Amino acid sequence: MSAPFSFATQTAPRTALVTGAGKRLGREIALGLAKAGWRVAVHYNSSEAEALQTAKDCLAVIDSTPALATSLPSSDPHRFIFQANLANEAATRQLLPQVVSQLGPVHAVVNSAALFEHDDVQSFSYANLAQHWATNTGAAIVLAQALHQHCQARGAQAADAVVINMLDQKLWNPNPDFLSYTLSKAALEAANTLLAQALAPQVRVVGVAPGLTLTSHMLADDKFQQLHKLSPLGRSSSAEDVVSTVVFAMHNRAITGTTLLVDGGQHLMKFERDFSLM
Known about the structure:
By secondary structure, the protein is an alpha/beta fold. Helix content is 43%, strand content 13%. A 7-stranded parallel β-sheet has the order 3-2-1-4-5-6-7, sandwiched between helices. α1 packs across α8 and α5 packs parallel to α6. The termini are far apart.
């Protein structure tokens, strides 16, 4: 029986690309991975200042942890930020090779960046659907493809790399709000299975589906707190819950082609509207 993966026994730094890591949950995932011993490539589209701060904070985690500082030496944070408009296929295809060129071998991609704009069946348009599918579905598939090609080029062993696709509990608890967003995430959830089949054995593919985790401009703080409690467990997911699940999925080499729901059971309850419109 092979020994479980451990950062204590790794011989070289392992790098993860996290998309949309300048803000919100993407930033929390990047910081969580840094604490778990990963070197993080921080992707952003327009949030350069926020991405740079995330990179600085990830490097600070390494500097403050002696065991990590020896194996993951810190550097200029500008080396760890990478800009790309994920709605642009050419820019997306260049992203992972740029990370490899700058930081060396990449072992994981976390597809956290997402377009989340409201539409419904009355306001639906081809254009809105295309934008959501390009950013939320197409980019994730292209980056998974690029990681697999990278693994093949460097002769990676089985289960050496992993793709984490951030999904949404509303796929298991549907309502007609945010129609194009929901369709794009449903397609990505289906792609978990197809990618896991196609990219094995080198690359695993795992979905992580949070519930209501962070507030937004659409929700007042008191309303968020009220909605956050609407679950069988009396609370939905926290950022810490989601991050720990991502880290677990990245380290467990026996998981692929499935989705981990982290929502306090919200997917078991029926909501007629999206949280932001309740």
